[in-house]
Write a structure and sequence with these properties.
2 copies of one chain form a homodimer.
Chain A lengths: L2 E5 L8 H14 L4 E5 L5 H5 L11 H6 L4 H4 L1 E2 L5 E4 L8 H6 L7 H5 L2 H4 L4 E5 L6 H9 L2 E7 L2 H20 L5 E8 L6 H14 L12 H5 L7 H4 L4 H19 L1
The structure holds adenosine-5'-triphosphate (ATP) (2 copies) and magnesium ion (2 copies).
One magnesium ion binds next to helix 1 of chain B.
């Protein structure tokens, strides 16, 4: 079956959705089949992949709480090789609804039926900016967690809390949960603070920090308004080459593990 | 009593905490007394104001759920005129704990006792990046909401959902809730997308969009690692002059309303 990777960091605006969309597109470009599950009530991954609100009839909310079948929620996107379970703002009531449900952190794991997932190589779970039940569900369902880390002071502060949460999920519900990697995002080489954050991250996390660093590149923030990944919006951009390099690095890590 | 302003936007990383800290410092520089209540489990506002983890004995969690008195939770910060109710990661379990409590969206409003607040001119509520019970508590307790809006596509998408939530809070629990303003953040004039977002926001929100625009300025992201506001870290920076201008604009708006 596929490798299920949660893309998570409770710090907001660090590049989770941008990484989910563009890494999925880069893997698809290399012939992999990728399913993206949008677990963020903002639905940014769904919008960035061109799914209009009116087309989001069955969503991640239905998958988690209304017994919808995975195969019915999955839909194609304009990117060949990338499919999605879309999200709407309904998902913002999921946390409270799940708080009152038995087995509330394994609802997603149970919804991901192996037969439907057979045809995918990767499943990405785009998480909201919190350590809520939605993110915990993703961590329980995943084989590994990819952590986008913005090269900023506040972002570094949250990393140790995220690692503590991963450890407690590993001990309580998902003993096989690994760290896929920590990927530096919005990196500006001219900025001292960014260099400090990188040095700090590599010192504390070692080889878990990906070799590939995603630079700050305006083409990445423009692409979603055209419902494209950066790979087709501006194939020669620094953003495109960075996510292609990250895709190769992820495949290499996957093959080794 | 003071004007209570929630600084909210469910989109992550748009400058909520940066605005809370630096606007508070700019108002204090003008002689106002400001209380900042950190409602984000990340505790970024507490860290940015130099409150070490070991010094956060009583926190916003205790205020909301353990019956701690506001006067006991408030502590001073290194910035004259700025006090804080600090937060720790304990707050991340607040949502689930509040979900099971009677009157769960007015816990903060009830904890803000008027006698203690008398000595302040402004109370800022720094919200987490979600429309969770913590943010709803802030909207129920506040007179108005200040919305930092990053000049980016995904950030604009969330604005209408935020406005819907404000309307439903106004209808259900807080009829006087107003919009203090929408303030554009991390604005880069050379960037087409930013200009589009500004034009779009001014067209849909009109005068609610503040005249003051906060430019992208690396000094703003460096200041918190020195536990200073940008006003003392680099008083002559673009970030400092922008937040001073925003403070003057807020005072002007307050005087008119
Ligand atoms: N490398 C980059 N260069 C420039 N802009 C970027 C880059 N990565 C992301 N962005 C932009 O920064 C903003 C934040 O990124 P994104 O929305 O992907 O983060 P997120 O972690 O998913 O946010 P949230 O916490 O709200 O879910 C977006 O407007 C996005 O377009
Ligand atoms: N005008 C600016 N120029 C440059 N950097 C900025 C600016 N405003 C904020 N930042 C930086 O951008 C990052 C996001 O800002 P901040 O943490 O204040 O956003 P937030 O909305 O509070 O995030 P969260 O949703 O996680 O609470 C921080 O690292 C901050 O230092
Ligand atoms: Mg996102
Ligand atoms: Mg914040």
């Amino acid at each position: 079956g596929p490798r299920v990777v949660a893309i998570a960091n409770q710090k907001g605006g660090v590049g989770k959705t941008t990484t989910a969309i563009n890494l999925a597109a880069a893997l698809a470009e290399m012939g992999k089949a990728v399913l993206l599950i949008d677990l963020d009530p903002q639905g940014n991954a769904s919008t960035g992949l061109g799914i209009a609100i009116t087309e989001r009839t069955l969503t991640s909310y239905d998958l988690l709480l209304d017994g919808a079948r995975l195969t019915d929620v999955i839909r194609t996107t304009p990117i060949a090789g990338v499919s999605i379970c879309p999200a709407t703002t309904d998902l913002s009531s999921a946390d409270i609804a799940m708080a009152e449900t038995e087995g509330r952190t394994s609802l997603l794991r149970e919804a991901l039926d192996a037969a439907t997932l057979q045809r995918f190589d990767y499943v990405f779970l785009d998480c909201p900016p919190s350590l809520s039940l939605l993110t915990l569900n993703a961590m329980v369902a995943a084989h590994s967690v990819l952590v986008p880390l913005q090269a900023e002071f506040f972002a570094l502060e949250g990393l140790s809390q995220l690692m503590l949460t991963l450890r407690s999920v590993r001990e309580s519900a998902n003993p096989d949960l690994r760290i896929e990697g920590v990927v530096l995002t919005m990196y500006d080489r001219r900025n001292n603070l960014a260099q400090h954050v990188e040095a700090d991250a590599r010192e504390t996390m070692g080889d878990l920090v990906c070799r590939t660093v995603i630079p700050r590149n305006v083409r990445l923030s423009e692409a979603p308004s055209h419902a494209q990944s950066v790979l087709t919006y501006d194939p020669a951009s620094k953003g495109s080459s960075a996510y292609r390099a990250l895709a190769r690095e992820i495949i290499e890590r996957h093959d080794q593990s």
